[in-house]
Amino acid sequence: MDVPDEDEDDLEDIIRGEEPEKIQDRDKSEEEQDAPCWKWTTSPCAASRVKSFAQIHGYDYKFYHAQHMKGYYDTWIRPHLLASLLRDNDYDFVMTMDADVTITHKDVPLEWLFNRWNITERTSIALPWDVETQIWETDYIRGKDSRGLTVLNAGVVIVQNLPHTLEMLQAWGDCPTETRYEGCAHWKTEWSHEQRAFSEYIRYDFNPDGDNIVPIACDDAMSWPGATEERPGPFNSVVLSDCNGNFLRHHTWHKERPRGEFQDAVMQLMIRLLQDKVKENMDTILTEERKERKGGGGIA
């Protein structure tokens, strides 16, 4: 969602490759590791959410807490991090998620979602359409670029290991230097930073085949149920786009919600697994009650 996000420097990465699963946690002190999870979007609390999904499906997993980039807002680490992961590892795809994004259905694999979202062998990057918001009691609409096209949200980013992808990520990361894109330095510290730079410049230059950059439906990967009913929400804005986060929910306004949604998703999965187990063992579990004998009941 196109609103300020204080925790965007925490990125969780699901990495699809051929190697056995790797789990890597960085920048965690012993105090952080032992601390209670009062704030669910900070490390190490957020790490367990995506890590469990990666373990279920056999994906590699890494948790990154970005270091400050002098002169840049911290989320500018995103294009550099993605390029590094593709160059230094034998992965077909890398997917990053902000720490306030939750996975709604943990049993649904990424491969199924890639098919749903029409990610092809030419797709370099996929990310969701942002929601549009309106400043309370004004006519100002947020969520569009300077050409009037809805921006893409970088809270969820999927990249495929292709030469075109690395070229695109290089241009994205270098955008604020203005060697190629005049005016991009404005987004070094101005919200929404690298996300807005991608929508203002990069997407118009790196989609020659029409499916090199794939927008994901807002209803699949943004916002949460009931967001449009909150009037006004934080930052004095109202959500206009009725997006429910059917597969991925981005809680830009409610940092407290990912914890409860993670618990609900795990319990739903557990219940389905238990139900399947009961069905598999029905012959040993089910006992049919005998019909009542003529002449009365009684204990059989």
How is this structure best summarized?
Belongs to the glycosyltransferase 34 family. With 300 residues, this protein is of the alpha+beta class. The chain has helices at residues 30-34, 47-57, 77-88, 110-116, 163-174, 193-205, 218-221, 257-280, 282-285; strands spanning 10-17, 23-25, 60-65, 91-98, 101-103, 125-128, 133-135, 141-142, 156-160, 213-216, 237-239, 248-250.
Describe this structure in words.
With 300 residues, this protein is an alpha+beta fold. 31% of the residues lie in helices and 17% in strands. It has one domain (10-283): Alpha-Beta Complex (Spore Coat Polysaccharide Biosynthesis Protein SpsA, Chain A), CATH 3.90.550.10. The protein is globular and about 85 Å long. The protein contains 9 helices and 12 strands. Strand 7 and strand 8 form a beta hairpin. Residues 1-12 have a biased composition (Acidic residues). One of its GO terms (biological process) is protein N-linked glycosylation.
Number of helices: 9
CATH class: Alpha Beta
Widest beta sheet: strand line-up = 2-3-1-4-9-6-10
The fourth-level CATH homologous superfamily is Spore Coat Polysaccharide Biosynthesis Protein SpsA, Chain A
In whole angstroms, the N-to-C terminal distance is 63 Å
CATH topology: Spore Coat Polysaccharide Biosynthesis Protein SpsA, Chain A
Number of domains: 1
